[in-house]
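FAQ: What does the model actually see?

It sees only this:
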Amino acid sequence: MKAFTRLDARAAPLPMANIDTDQIIPKQFLKTVERGGLSRGLFYDLRFDGDGGPRPDFVLNRPEYAGAGVLVTGDNFGCGSSREHAPWALMDFGITCVIASSFADIFYNNCFQNGLLPVVLKPEEVQALTGECLGGNHMVSVDLEAQTVTSPSGRIFAFEIDASRKAKMLNGLDAIGETLSAAADIDAWEAGRTLTHPWLERA
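And it is asked to produce this:
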């Protein structure tokens, strides 16, 4: 998993509450376990019309938000069914940070396991950030070490994050990576167990 330290990127505002995982990545795109290529299904019903043509008014289709790395959205983002494809699709599209006033628990947890940073700000801060991103300047900075978001105008918003999750994000560690980082200690323990409990090693 790629480490997340600081992100300076264009932010796309999507001020909608209760965006569920089926809106993020509809069920017809869940037939694969590969992470690549899922960006084509991201917000499919919002991005495209019934004929498959792009909706020009949808934020991620607008040229001024091309290449956005941050999504600023509404309350309860990622609600609905549990599907790891949701953070996969966002990341495949190039979005590595989502800012909202709250997230659904399962989606929030899945983000950390996949290297996507979910940032919780106060509702009024999200509203202020959204307003700025709707203006002419869309660039924001997200500093995980400092736990701050800097708006296009230079306003700084602080956010909270669990210390262990922060450390894993900074070091690019998912659950497997965290276990492997202790490989030497695990090997030493297993070697000691073989000496003290050799009968456990018998077939």
